Amino acid sequence: MGHEYVELKNTHAAIESYRRAVDVNRRDYRAWYGLGQTYEMLEMHTYSLWYYKKAAGLRPWDGKMWMAVGSCLQKMGRERDGIKALKRALLADAYYDVGSSFGSGGDLLGARGATGQMDPEILLQIATMYDQLGEEEEAKAYMELCMAQEDGGPAAAGNLGESVRIHNDSPGGSDGYHDRDDANAEGNAEGTGVTAATSKARMWLAKFAMRTADYTTANRLAAELCQDGVEVEEAKALAREVRSRLEASGMLGPAG
To answer: What b-and-e string marks burial along 112-129, b requiring 16 or more CB atoms within 10 Å of the CB?
Structure first.
């Protein structure tokens, strides 16, 4: 019933319904997650975060739980903690075998080899938070990884080494980690194709290339953006600016 009350935006009734559910079963992750959602609707992010962490502790292999934790932390202005949670979402969705729990050690994303592609939306969110923190090199790495999801293959699996380390500071309760359905652990090498997230990453990388005077890369990315069908007008304006810079630098002859 709680989910129906959320749909109706009856937050008081939703909270009561979810609380009754957790009173009956303290391990009902859906009820804890529902409480997190409801308090997030009320913009009570401290409460929301606590409930999301409870849900994530009960279901640590579910990337959706960690996405909720990460997004909530971002709204609270805790970007660095949000990044850690979203990296866990990536690891959870890729179904890594990291021992008895997600907090068991320092296994690396690149060291294990991914079993499937990553969610470009999560990668974009991580990159955006790094950008907000002023860490452009990390932001660039995740933007590139986001864009790589279009094609799938080895590049999409990522090899960011230390930057995707599993952290030990997330909530516990991961004793059920190995109860997951291992049938979903088989990799999927197919890419996502162009998405809104990958186009945003490409736009960021094109602008970054412009700022760093890498006009050849900026020109290539701008041309790709014009074909993406997402934010085409901005892409065309960027392409014109790139061409102007190339002409000014003598790397491209003037248009006939």
So the answer is: eebbbbbbbbbbbbbbbb
